């Protein structure tokens, strides 16, 4: 009896100690196989630097090993990614392509970037992935030399066919814009026609039609106060450029957190335009507390006439767009009459990880996707313009995409290349703009706040 | 100590329970806390593979960061508001459902508990809808009594927006503490109440002199628990409902931690905020326990 109890206690003890360890053990073994995988792939792929001699014969070179692509799935969907990856696989049967995609992929992959085991190729889009930060963290491969004479699979020089050149970080190229998006103001063409409202061309016509809209009982303007970068991107930044004689360098200086840039009179002029909208009662009071989806719903329901947004809007809301709704789009409304339209573009970029294990395949993939065939496929499958020059007027892309493409190629448009602000400065500007729209601060206080943050960042 | 003796067996038996628990505690609590403390001494973006040791600079910077102070103020506002709101209502409901015998008591007990079963995320979304200025329930309801349509932006005031987060937080919390107090009240022998009513004590007297002293221990636990869950968890409701805005007026320490660590790429600073939350939670627990120290009256 005694012995039995003894045995029971012992076995219970053994079980309870071993059980949790079993979990650890299996975890350990899985990670160790992963590292083995990684090391084997580094050994099988030859890491010859093919930066200068990449020509058309590159496509005939056999790509082997593993190749991992990280892509965020948001407003543009993932149809194109699935298609292009399938095409690339077909062209390179010996390459084991692994895709890591999804709406939360940026967060999911973060531990791997931190741990020095990133995917080979990354599409930088969506929340919590900021190319400026990735460059500062030394996560991205320097593509400056490669870009100089890289050609795509058709043999065309890539830098020649890009609508927007890559953003320079200290004069260097780390990522290449794949998607060309423009911020701007949307309205419903059908509604405007029905009510006899003129479509806005500049600030004056925007204000006068807003007066009419308000008199008709519709709120002229709604934005998302939860994400104030929408109103900043579509109203404030174009207004700053217009007020700065269409000189875009001011935004680039702001992106470099140069304090003097924020103190330019153009910034105040632009901020006062938002104040004007506010004081005339054009901004829907609901804006401040709602998210982008709610603001877009109210816009689609004709509760509001204008919405600042990006070109992904129609695709994002595709399921909720009422019948007969026809998206009108202009990149900016803040220019004086006769002034140039300012298109503040935001590109979604692609890059190669500095610690990529298969850089050769990643570069080949770049050459593969920056082709005209993939560009028109992108416009069709994702409903947004790609960053590759080309006439899409005959393609089956939606009409607002064609409108936007027309603006972006018009000589009377100032095209602002994609700009990434420092995250702290960006947040300060967003908070300050929100505070400005509800009358909590003055434009001067906006400047003061942002200047304080920029000073701290520059330190 | 000889193998097989009673003492040895007893110790072995205790060890089987303590050691695995302790190991889990170390791996999942002690280790992350130590790691957070370690990171709080670094300037690290959170996505880079190199970090710089900066000593206590993150903590020094906090002193000059106005949003930290806003967050702390909001956190303690929510703690105070929730303790008062939840304790009053939960006690009220618990007494009502146990001491006043009425037919639907069981039904109401379930109804009041429902918010506890719903995830905080759903509660946030639900209340967002209630507060929606254009299509929300609250404005539509108020519009019944006014000539013009009410269009108050409940979550968009220039200040004090944090007040609007109190009703959902209280609403979500009542059920659990109500059940806790109901259990405590049901543990009080009925004879106490009978005796007191024979002596002529009314409901209020019974509540004040019998119920309250005998459930004080549970109330103490409830208050401490509300305090701790609020300091550590009000982040969820803030993120869902206001994202800390407008203009950081509803930021709590937890949401600011997330903001700093993951959106503004200051992971070290975020970790330092985490350490601050930990320290404040501990200090507050000690202070509250001292304040509520009252001789526990036990049912004999």
TrEMBL record, chain B:
It is a multi-pass membrane protein. The chain crosses the membrane at residues 12-34, 76-98, 110-130, 162-185, 223-245, 265-288. The keyword Manganese does not apply. Coiled coil: none annotated. The keyword Manganese does not apply. It is found in: Cell membrane. It holds the Pfam family BPD_transp_1. Its main location: membrane. InterPro entries: MetI-like, MetI-like_sf, UgpAE/MalFG_permease. Residues 72-288 form the ABC transmembrane type-1 domain. Keywords: Cell membrane, Membrane, Transmembrane, Transmembrane helix, Transport. Belongs to the binding-protein-dependent transport system permease family. This is N-acetylglucosamine transport system permease protein. It comes from Paenibacillus favisporus. The lineage of its organism: Bacteria, Bacillati, Bacillota, Bacilli, Bacillales.
